[in-house]
């Protein structure tokens, strides 16, 4: 997809700040440092529209990026930092629930998983949470350029098995360095925007 317009509309902390207008939304979730900002920037051909994810202590926000005036990428704060307080975890959970459970324009979620490692417990919880609320999931296995050709298929299978992906879910190996998987990821994203 060619992106002609990309703009951060709002960094929201609560539902009353979400954009109005009902444009379809694709959420992006993943462990901190998984490569989420790099994924967004590569997908939309911008060097640094999505900043690297906020460090602990910074305000956690849902960042709504409007694209081509026709849909949004919603960047969800990363999870899995070791040094996050109970209070911060609770605030994160509340914000996630408020968005994922109530947002009608949410069409699908891109769940980013580091292709080099087994999905973590947090990744599994996130996947199960999305499935529980019947939100379609596109699993993007990031940093795939770091795996040798022979290891790629093996690691993708580990992700599929550990998360127990269902047949309707999609799995794409992706590299922000080489753009591998970019067209495939857009195909899935587009199918949900248009449905
Ligand atoms: P975020 O915290 O999930 O937003 O992660 P970032 O996008 O900031 O990426 C974290 C680190 O991984 C950075 O040093 C990136 O340069 C690196 N990275 C992200 N995507 C890729 C990729 O596809 N290939 C490689 N080799 N490195 C990547």
UniProtKB/TrEMBL annotation:
Gene Ontology CC annotations of this record: cytosol
GO biological process: division septum assembly
Biological role stated in the UniProt entry: Necessary for normal cell division and for the maintenance of normal septation.
Keyword Cell division on entry: yes
Protein's name in the database: Probable GTP-binding protein EngB
Gene Ontology MF, one: metal ion binding
Encoding gene, per UniProt annotation: engB
NCBIfam families on file: GTPase_YsxC, small_GTP
Presence of keyword GTP-binding: yes
Residue span(s) of domain EngB-type G: 22-195
Pfam families: MMR_HSR1
Family statement: Belongs to the TRAFAC class TrmE-Era-EngA-EngB-Septin-like GTPase superfamily. EngB GTPase family.
Sorted UniProt keywords: Cell cycle, Cell division, GTP-binding, Magnesium, Metal-binding, Nucleotide-binding, Septation
Cofactor: Mg(2+)
HAMAP family: GTPase_EngB
SUPFAM superfamilies for this protein: P-loop containing nucleoside triphosphate hydrolases
Organism: Allobacillus saliphilus
